């Protein structure tokens, strides 16, 4: 009898297993339509997402190109600024040198003018300290 129980148990489990496995594979028409609609919707979303991804990749590539161009432009501007700073320092030095030359010239010119004024100025005739006597014929007022 034990053998029959074992056989019945195996046959029963096999029948239930076949019935369970067979049932899960069969979908109703409504479930199929719902699943098909879900799959179609997901495919549309995938296409839209792929298109958006491609668009964003193009925008990213354009932005990176603009960034490279701006970086190159920035480097050129920095070089120009550095060159202008060097020129400004050179011009400042030239200005200082010219200002020193001008001040020296002005000082020399003042010295020369002073020497010329001294040379041109009439020498004062000095009054002697010895009294001059008037002769008898000369009077104090003429």
> How large a portion of the residues is in β-strands, by DSSP E?
under 5%
Number-wise, the strands total 0
Give the % helix. over 70%
What's the rounded overall pLDDT mean? 87
What Rg do the Cα atoms give?
A: 59 Å
| Silhouette | rod-shaped
In short, what is this structure?
Keywords: Coiled coil. By secondary structure, the chain is mainly alpha-helical.
Could you please describe the fold and organization of this structure?
The protein is mainly alpha-helical. It has a domain at 30-117. It contains two helices and no strands. The longest helix has 92 residues, at 29-120. It is rod-shaped and about 195 Å long. It starts with a helix and ends in a 22-residue tail after the last helix. Keywords: Coiled coil. Residues 32-115 form a coiled coil.
SSE blueprint:
Blueprint: H1 2-25, H2 29-120
Keywords for this structure?
142 residues; mainly alpha; 2 helices; 82% helix; 0% strand
């Amino acid at each position: 009898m034990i053998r029959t129980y074992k056989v019945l148990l195996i046959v029963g489990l096999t029948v239930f297993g076949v019935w369970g496995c067979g049932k899960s594979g069969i979908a109703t028409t409504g479930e199929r339509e719902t699943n098909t609609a879900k799959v179609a919707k997901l495919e549309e979303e995938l296409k839209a997402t792929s298109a958006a991804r491609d668009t964003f990749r193009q925008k990213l590539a354009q932005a990176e190109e603009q960034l490279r161009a701006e970086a190159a432009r920035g480097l050129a501007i920095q070089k120009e600024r550095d060159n202008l700073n060097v020129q400004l320092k050179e011009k400042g030095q030239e200005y200082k040198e010219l200002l020193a030359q001008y001040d020296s010239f002005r000082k020399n010119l003042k010295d020369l003018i002073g020497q010329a004024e001294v040379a041109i100025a009439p020498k004062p005739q000095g009054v002697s300290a010895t009294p001059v006597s008037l002769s008898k014929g000369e009077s104090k007022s003429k």
